[in-house]
Design goal:
By secondary structure, this protein is α+β, with helices and mostly antiparallel strands. The chain folds into 3 domains: 130 residues, Orthogonal Bundle (Butyryl-Coa Dehydrogenase, subunit A, domain 1); 100 residues, Butyryl-CoA Dehydrogenase, subunit A, domain 2, CATH 2.40.110.10; 158 residues, Butyryl-CoA Dehydrogenase, subunit A, domain 3 (Up-down Bundle). Strand 1 and strand 2 form a beta hairpin. Helix content is 44%, strand content 12%. Helix 8 runs antiparallel to helix 9 and helix 9 runs antiparallel to helix 10. The chain is globular, with a radius of gyration of 22 Å.
Length: 420
């Protein structure tokens, strides 16, 4: 194992729950044996929780992520990170989602914040935030509000307010769909000033007045902590107000492509579950093409289709990630190139349209390799479709298809809002 003198790990296969104790003393890197160990342990924990309690939260997995400093994957090594490219990041997200899609989703906002920190003008506040990332801190979000206003606009007037108070400010409001914040150390909040101007702040989640409610009741991605965040007269220091990062990007392609990376990871797991289902069948139908499931050419064909869908989804996501690497690698003194930004958003949108098509078909086709027993709740195979459906519903694909077509046919750029 590389860097063995820096990474100490112990594996205790004789313990009652077959858990693995991992202790990390160096930031984890993409493609490393240490990452493999982390992924295996997160997958083991997810399987254990599914067997014992469907509402058991992945606190252990998140603690491992803090210890391994996986959240610092994109930081340069000289800043205490893993030195990964965006393509590397999405490869890791796919693998993480294969192990546990909830855990992968929890980190979505975190990695978006890290990217913005990295591209922010260098100053003491920015450097402090990067140090926190390097130390393992996780950042969540409190952005979305439920109101009569249409969603997606970046210049919306928020009902959550930031008001001056003595040497700082006070934050008041209620946010919904706060994915990952239940597990986070810090939360990024969008609010409006008394003048109606948008403002972004980052505060600790344990600050007085911050209330995190685990009330997300979606059909999928059940343990992402995507619940309500209440902000009751929360004090905000001046240096906790974000400056210079909110409007750097005209689009939000990293956040959007991230969802497709999770789906690609789920498709990997669909293939694994289909294989296990076929191999576990002790009998088949009297009219089947073979005496056993593994020998049945029709079932083999289904596995081939599922495997090909997973491969194609992953390849598409990584290709779109290359466009994001091109974008960030051409940032000039904090200035974002609009054409590169738009291209990254376009590819993320195109990825969404086709990856989700693969995913819905695959998560249904999975059941064709099993009999009626595959539909038992105890088998839990429907979780894949439910998770994919929940991820896909973050922003309707029909709108993405239309705006892509409008751009191709008429040259009309994609909308500049939070969903592109």
């Amino acid at each position: 194992m590389t860097n063995q003198e820096q990474l100490k790990y112990e594996i205790n296969h004789n313990s009652k729950d077959h858990s693995t104790l991992l202790t990390f003393t160096t930031p984890i890197k993409a493609g490393s044996p240490e990452l493999d160990l982390l992924i295996v342990e997160i997958a083991r924990d997810a399987e254990k929780r599914r067997r014992t309690d469907d509402r058991s939260h992945p606190y252990y997995a998140i603690d491992l992520i803090r210890q391994s400093r996986l959240g610092a994957l994109r930081l340069p090594e000289e800043l205490g990170g893993g030195g990964a490219s965006i393509r590397d990041l999405f490869y890791v997200v796919i693998r993480l989602a294969e192990a546990d899609p909830d855990v992968a989703h929890i980190l979505r906002t975190h990695f978006n914040f890290v990217e913005k920190f990295l591209l922010s003008p260098k100053n003491e506040v920015r450097d402090t935030r990067l140090v926190r990332v390097a130390e393992g801190a996780i950042f969540g979000n409190a952005i979305t509000e439920i109101s009569s206003r249409n969603v997606g606009s970046l210049d919306v007037v928020y009902e959550t307010t930031l008001s001056p108070d003595c040497d700082g400010y006070r934050l008041n409001g209620t946010k919904y769909f706060s994915t990952g914040t239940l597990y986070a150390d810090f939360v990024g909040v969008r609010a409006s000033t008394s003048e109606g101007l948008p403002v972004n702040v980052i505060i600790p989640t344990n600050r007085e007045g911050v209330v995190l409610e685990d009330d997300w009741d979606g059909i999928g991605q059940k343990l992402t902590g995507s619940g309500t965040t209440r902000l009751n007269n929360v004090f905000v220091n001046t240096e906790e107000i974000l400056e210079g990062i909110h409007d750097q990007f005209q689009f939000n392609s990293l956040l959007q492509l991230y969802l497709q990376a999770i789906i690609a990871g789920i498709l990997r797991n669909v293939v694994s579950d289909a294989k296990a289902l076929i191999q576990s069948r002790s009998r088949t139908y009297s009219h089947a093409a073979a005496d056993t499931g593994p020998a049945d050419p029709q079932l083999q064909q289904i596995i081939g289709q599922l495997s090909s869908s997973a491969f194609a989804a992953e390849a598409i996501v990584l290709a779109a990630a290359d466009a994001q690497d091109t974008l960030v690698n051409h940032v000039d003194d904090g200035v974002i190139d609009y054409a590169l930004d738009h291209n990254a958003s376009l590819q993320a949108a195109q990825a969404k349209v086709i990856v989700e098509d693969f995913a819905f078909k695959a998560s249904t086709l999975l059941f064709d390799v099993g009999g009626a027993s595959a539909t038992k709740q105890s088998a839990n195979l429907d979780r894949h479709w439910r998770n994919i459906r929940t991820l896909a519903s973050h922003n309707p694909t029909v709108y993405k298809s239309r705006t892509i077509g409008n751009y191709i046919v008429n040259g009309t750029d994609l909308p500049m809002n939070g969903y592109y």
